[in-house]
Amino acid sequence: MKTRIEGRQMISKVTLNESIVAYQRETLSATRVEHILRVADTARRLAADHGLDEERAYTAALLHDNARETPGHVLLAECRKRGISILPIDEVNPIPRLHGQLGAAIARERFAITDPEILDAISSHTLGRVGMTPLEMVVFLADYMEPGRNAHEGLAEVREAAPRDLALATRMAMDYTIRYLLDKRRSLHPQVVDARNWILTKALSPSQAPHH
Ligand SMILES: [Fe+2]
Ligand SMILES: [Fe+2]
Q1: Ligand with smallest separation from the Cα of 75
Q2: Which of 74, 94, 176, 185 is the most buried (most CB within 10 A)?
Q3: 16 alpha carbon – ligand 1 mean position (Å)
Q4: How far is the CA of 65 from the centre of ligand 1 (A)?
Q5: Centroid of ligand 2 to alpha carbon of 194 (angstroms)
Q6: CATH number at residue 123
Q7: Where are the alpha helices (DSSP H) in 28-87?
């Protein structure tokens, strides 16, 4: 009996993942779908490295960029329609935060995802979040380090750290992103700054935290 139920759950997970990919092949570019599949594989591997649920990581990663090709003004309108909070910086630069927020809304509405950790992993995949869980870090890092990413300073370091320390690798990835944005004179979303500060004080072991 138990095996039959487990078998049925297995089949429904496969069906869910297949219908997610089918939806994305209709709504996103082929390049994006390939990225998403690489992120999902990377997330599954990282989850295994850290003893986390591989299927939840895979499904969350499959859903992370649902709304990545939605134009900024549509993201703003769709988020407003759903009562999703919009910060002043989101009005200027909607994509970093709102494509995750709308992506999570699509996961809920279209694929009936109710697992709050999966929904948080989708909405926080670009900026991180204060209090982000290991599963959220897995999706954040998988997006950052998937094998299709162009080599840049720091990528090798993040890839090396991620299988052994999620918080450390997440902080490194945030550091590189923040430095890149500063170098380009681009704006910084406050959510990534808050998330990085939280990791420094709460999520890193004492030997990794900076001395104040
Ligand atoms: Fe994204
Ligand atoms: Fe992505």
Answers
A1: 1
A2: 94
A3: 20
A4: 5
A5: 21
A6: 1.10.3210.10
A7: 30-49, 54-63, 72-81
